[in-house]
Amino acid sequence: MPRPRDRAANGATALPPATLAFVESPVQLLNVLEWAYEEGGAGPLGGASAPDAPAAPGAPAEATAPAHTSGPPVAPGHVCGPPAAAAPPERAPAATALTIVVLSPHDPMTRGQLRRMAELAREEGHSVRWEDARGGATAPLRTIGGLAPLLRRAERIVIGDPFSRYVQLLLTLARARDLVVVDDGTATMEFIAQLARGERLVRWHRHGSGRGARDLVFAPFARAARRRLTPAPEGGRRTVGVFSSMPVEAPPGVRIATNAFAWTRRRFGPPRLTRAADIVGTSLVETGVVDLDRYLAAVAQLARTHGATRYFAHRREHTDKLHRLATETGLEVVRPDLPLELIARRGPIGRLIVSFPSTVVHTLPLALVGTGVRVAVCDVDPAWLTSRASPRAQGFLDDVTGTARGVDRLPPESATEPEPPTATE
User: Fold this and answer.
1) How far apart are CA 271 and CA 344, in angstroms?
2) pTM, entire model
3) 98 HSE (CA, 13 A, CB side)
4) Top CATH class, 269-415
5) Biased-composition ranges for Low complexity (predicted)?
6) What angle do CA 414, 417, 419 make, to 5 degrees?
C-alpha cells in the first residue's frame, strides 16, 4: 500500500520537495534564505510556516525546541537586544518547495545558532529537517539512508560547503541536474579558484599533502563530487550556479548571482548605533594560522587605538582564549546567537566595526549599507603566522582584504604595540 503524502497545515497535499538544501553552519543557512528570497522565496515572507520534513529516527528534540543560547560565562548574549520590528510581510511569488537539511555539527555554539536560524527559516515558510549527522558511529549511515529518497526526488540541490566530505558523499547519491553553491564565507573564493584551475577541492588553511589514509579512502567520492560541481559542456543537462557576496569570477559554464543581503536588510533594522567601536573575532588561532599571543596583543592594541568596548566572538573560538582575551583587554566578550550580519542589522552596533581578514569584511558593508556604520579590516602581519600555517595562508588572507569593497584598510602596524622610545630620543 503506498504511503500517504504528508498534509500541509492548510490541508493541502505536501508534494515531494523539488529543491533540497544542505547546510552545516549558521552562515550557510542565512545565505540559503537570501538565495531563496532572490529566487522568489518558498512561501510568504514572515508568513505561516510550512510543515517540517520528517527527521530521521533518533533526531534530537532540540531541532524543534525554542531557540536559546547557553554560551560560556564570558559570553553575555543579552547585549544584542531583541529583534527590531520587521517590515510588513509581503507575499512572495509561488515557487518550488524548499527543504533545508541541517547536518548538525558537534560544536554547541554552532548548534545554538543553527537552531535560531532554523526558526527564522520556518517563519519564512521553508521546511527544515534537522539531522544529528555526527551523533555516533552509526549516525552517517542512518542519515544517508534517511536522506536517500529526498536526494532521488530533488530536482535541484543547494549546498553551503562544497569542501564538506559529508556533502560530497551526498552529492554522489543525487540525481539533480541543477546544483547551486551558496556562500560559506571566504571559502567560496578558494572553491571558485580551484574549480577554474581543475584542482581537487582543499580548504585554504589545510596543511598537508591530503594523502592520508582517510583522504585515500574518500578520494573516489571527492572526485565524483567534483565532477558534479563542474558544469557540463554547452548544451549539456548539468548546470552549476554560485550565489555569492564575494568578489568571484565565474569559470566557464558557471552562473554567478550576487548576494546583496536583500532579505536581511528587509527583515531587520536599521540598527541603533553606539558611540564606541566593536571588534569582530576570528578563528584564525583555532585553525592554526595565527599565533595566540600575537593575536591577543593585536586585539588589545586595536581596542586602545579605536576605543572599542565589545568583542563579538566567532562561534568556533575557544572558551579559554576568550576568558584570557576579556581579562587582558578589558573588552566585553559577546557570543552572538545569530550570524553577525543579523546581529549588526538588529543593533545596537558600533559606528565602527574592526575585523581581521574574514567573511564579514565583505558581507557587513552589504548588510549595513545606508546605516552610517564604517567597517575596517586590519591586515595580518606575516610575523603573526604559526609554523603550522599553510603556505597559502598569507596570500589568501591578503586577497580577502585586498578585494573587500567599502571598507577602510588598516595596516598591521595599527595593531602592534609601538616600541618604547630609547633614552636618546
Assistant:
1) 7
2) 0.79
3) 29
4) alpha beta
5) 47-67, 76-91
6) 120
> Where does 248-404 show beta strands of DSSP type E?
254-258, 273-280, 308-312, 332-334, 349-355, 374-378
Q: Residue 337 has which C-alpha cell? A: 546567537
Dist. CA 256–CA 261, nearest whole Å: 15
**Coil vs helix vs strand at 222:** helix
Written as one letter, the residue type at 190 is E
Task: Cell numbers for 12, please give them.
Answer: 493541502
Tell me which residue has cell 588553511.
205
The enclosing H or E element of 130 equals strand 127-131
Averaged pLDDT score across all residues of the chain? 79
**Which cell is 43 given?**
512561501
Can you tell me which residue has the cell 548546470? 239
Domain ranges of the chain: 19-263, 269-415
Cβ-proximal residues to 323 (8 Å cutoff; 6+ apart), any chain: 72, 73, 74
Dihedral sign from CA coordinates of 95, 151, 162, 224: negative
85, 115 contact by CB (below 8 A) = no
**Are the C-beta atoms of 33 and 121 separated by less than 8 Å?**
yes
Angle between the N-to-C axes of helices 26-39 and 108-123, in degrees from 0 to 180, rounded to the nearest 10: 20
- pLDDT recorded at residue 229: 78
Please determine, for residue 147, whether its predicted confidence score (pLDDT) is greater than 70. yes
Contact 18, 156 (CB under 8 A): yes
Query: What is d(CA 210, CA 221) in angstroms, rounded to the nearest whole number?
Result: 14
How far, in whole angstroms, is CA 314 from its chain's centroid? 11
Query: What is each CA distance from 401 to 130, 249, 377, 409, 414, in whole angstroms?
Result: 35, 17, 7, 8, 15
Query: CB neighbours of 87 closer than 8 A, spacing ≥ 6?
Result: 266, 267
For 36-58, what is the HEC assignment?
Answer: HHHHCCCCCCCCCCCCCCCCCCC
For CA atoms 21, 363, 63, 282, the dihedral sign is positive
**Residue 249, pLDDT score:** 83
Instruction: Identify residue 216 by its one-letter amino acid code.
Output: L
**For residue 363, is pLDDT > 90?**
yes
Q: Is the pLDDT of residue 63 over 50?
A: no
How is residue 125 written as a grid cell? Answer: 515558510
